[in-house]
Fold this protein.
Amino acid sequence: MRDFKLPLIVALSCLILNTSVTATEIQTLQPQRDYQTLLTQRQVVDELLEQAAIIQKSPARVSNAGFTAKLPSNMERIAELLLQAYELEPYRVDFLFGAANANIYNGNVDKAIPLYEKVLSIAPDDIKAHIYLTTWHRFKQNRAENEKYFKRLQTLSPEKASTLSKVFETIDRITHQPITDKLEQPLGENAAIITLGYALNPDGSMHEILIQRLEKTLELAKQNPDSLIIVTGGVPQNNKTEGTLMKQWLIDKGIPTERIYSDDYARSTVENALFARYAVAKHKIKHAVLISSGSHVRRGQALFEIATWESGPQDLNIRTVAALDKPLDELQTVSQKDLLGIYRDSLKVLGLPTFNSGVLQD
């Protein structure tokens, strides 16, 4: 009986597809690729996402003191796979967002903007698309386009528009402040030193860049003996994490263990801010100094400030001290690459992930 059912189903399908449609009926978007020879449309889409997730988890990375990330070629391939999935599922705008954000990750803002605009061709009132378009036109200094999308965002969501404006003000202030490698004045009471981790070597030992940050942490810890010390970093190598090794290094140098809180879970600067902020809130910190490499401290400060808008303390004052990865005079001007990273990760702290498609997640 099974042999007769399939031709019957095919015949009925053809009959339905060939039925005339009146001009007033709604026509839904259809896949732009012929998948009929494949097993099923759903399985093809799932396979594309699985491939993207495997690439995302690849250990191959590009790394320097201010930026540790997936190889650009990996993100290009993820964008390609997501756009292939979108051709099969033309209502899945999460694929468009993911492809656009992969291009942002690679620094290709011009390639990302048309993908955000394509979302608006489907959902003209999409708030997230307006946030992205406002942000990246501002980054590109496209004033007219920036104002157009921001005005529309103010109409769609005044609260989100206000928050985004505050983000821009924070970024402008932080990127124009001088970088210093000294703490000119003591932190005072209710204070914390926050030190950001850096990717460990494959054998689980600490990279020289991380040791430089710890040496600066030790210097400030001795200057401010009553301050809490927060070390944050949770990417494992050889069954070790940055946070654990950072804490032990400080203990070996004579810092009491009870002064140190170790966050062993954060896998990025975004998670450094999102996870460590609760240690700051719990201990009612009023003054904090953030330590990282000179090309990274601006991003760290911006993300911590934005993260504490939600969790508090609301009156927290954050300063930065740099472990110098470049000459101090070179660090005074923020590079376009560093500025892009600040914009990108600020949006992530606000809750806009790079990827949000099934198995492909941040």
Observations:
- The two ends are 48 Å apart (CA to CA).
- Residues 158-176 form the longest helix (19 residues).
- The beta strands are 61-64, 67-70, 191-196, 228-232, 260-263, 287-293, 317-323, 356-357, 360-361.
